[in-house]
Amino acid sequence: MPPAAGDAPVAAAPTSNVEAAAAPVAAAHPAERPRRAVRPPPPPALGALLPWWREAAGRDFGVEYVGQAASEQALVFRFSQNASAEAAARSIRVIDERGAATQGQWTQGQNPYVLVYRGVNPGRYTVRIEPTLASVAGTPLGSTLQGAIYVR
Fold first, then answer.
1. What are phi and psi of 21, to 5 degrees?
2. What is the phi/psi pair of residue 63, to 5°?
């Protein structure tokens, strides 16, 4: 019986193993792009790796480090001179991922150059340090510093 109009022609089945081996093999799956062996880190992580606080380096009073405390969910701020928790409460803002200011508490670290900010949960925070922040001796920071910090 001849094929009906619109029917696709059907290839004849191979009659021997040799013909079967020589027939073109249709791909079971379309060609896939090879997967990347290493994924790049997400963009927010890159921002946290950059030491944004070093913009004030070389001044009489500056920020030497900002990051998560080693043994707790808290932020640690190390300055080049003595700093007070009261001055930090007035001049440093810690903002959560939703854009809301956090309600943490500032305490003096064991080292007088260190302040600890407690009251943060795991997540990404933006820290903004105003230029009015001054050391105990009265030396001002002099420029605004802002950057991302992650708490695990």
1. -70, -30
2. -95, 125
Cβ burial, residue 28 (10 Å; 0-12/13-18/19+): exposed
List, for residues 53-103, the tens digit of each pLDDT value.
776 556 789 999 999 999 899 999 999 999 999 999 999 999 999 999 999
Q: What is the pTM of this model?
A: 0.67
Q: Determine the distance from the C-alpha atom of residue 123 to the mean position of all C-alpha atoms in its chain, rounded to a whole number.
A: 9
Instruction: From 60, 74, 38, 66, select the one nearest 139 (Cα to Cα).
Output: 60
Given a contact cutoff of 8 angstroms between Cβ atoms, the answer to whether 124 and 47 are in contact is no
Q: Quick one: tokens of 21?
A: 């081996």
